[in-house]
Every structure is written in C-alpha cells, then in structure tokens.
Amino acid sequence: MSHNKKQNVCIKAKKVFDWVIRPVNVTKSYSNKELCGLFDEDLNELCATANGCEPHFRAECKVFDVDAKEMKSDRQKIRVRINGEDVTLHKVKVLVSFKVKVIIFADGDKFKTTEPIDVCSVETFYLCAPKGTCVDATVLDGECEAEFFCCNDTANLTLSADFCLDVQVTDFVKLEVEASYCNPRDEFPISDMITCKPEKEPKQCPDIFPGKHKR
Description:
3-stranded antiparallel β-sheet, SipL SPOCS domain-containing protein
C-alpha cells in the first residue's frame, strides 16, 4: 500500500518529442518487359481479341513483410514559421517497404500469380527530432488494390496501396517528480490446501432406540 509521505524522486521515462500520422498512397504500374518479368512470360497474348471478345479479368493483391524505418542520414535543420514564431525542425526521411503478391482471375477462374513484388516509398517529414532522439515508424491499417487490363493489345498491371504511417520521435529522459514510495500490499489469508473436517455423526432416534429404560 502507498505511503502518504511524499518526496522528490527521479524517474526514467520515455518522452515523445513529436508525433504525426500521415495517410500514404503508393502506386506502381507495370507493362511490357516489366510485366513479363513479374510472370516470367509475355501476357500481351491475353489481350489478343477473339471474335471481338476479351476475357473478363480481375486482380487481387496481398501485402506482407511490411516495414518502416528512418533512413540513416544527417537530419537537416529547417527554420519554419509556425503560429507567428520561428521554429527549428528537422528533415526526417522514412523508408517504407513491403511485398505484394498479385493473383489474376480470368472469367472468374484463377489464372496467373506473380512472384512477390518489392514496393518501396520514401516519405519526408519535418519534425522536432534533435540529435539523440529515435524515430519510430509504424504502418497502421491499410489496403491494397490491383487492376489488370488491356490497352491497345498491351497487358497492364496497376498496384495501389493506401495506409497510415505513424511516426513518433522519442527518447528516454530523467524526470524529477513529487511522489511517495509504494510497498507491496499484505496478502490475504488464502490457502489452496484442502480443509479437512471430521464426518458428522448420523442423527439417532433416542425415542425408539435404545429406547427409554425403566428403573
């Protein structure tokens, strides 16, 4: 239980110097040789019309191995004016990388699957990030869309990934606060052992047995 007596104590805590969340969109398009490299074959033949009719294509994408981290470089100082005051911020670059696998369906049937596609994006932030602080980047909820289509008898694949990038600048600092020390509480008298009690004697019928004896 806590003591009422207070005193100044020094604690080590993680301080957040700056924190932003940004929506990010990454779009990539592939055709011709780049697209052939994803499937190890030429898909332009799929776009050749037969009696003026093309198959109905649909594409799905799956994202995995998502990672976000600060790019190791000197943080350039930038002087900006915020709310009428000159403030020094730092230019921070965050590298976001992930892998995408695309599945193409033709007329509802699974047709082709790509090898994992590497996708990267560099995002620039202006943050309060003085020397010695750490930049922690995390990719929050996101979604991926893929489109496979034919244009002028040429196969095309477009990937679009939308996600939220959470970036925090942190460092451990020592703080002096007024507090009181806390001691462990007393344990309640609880035992896991079985409580053994003697069996109760059965009730007797003294009126009929052994009965009343005459003297």
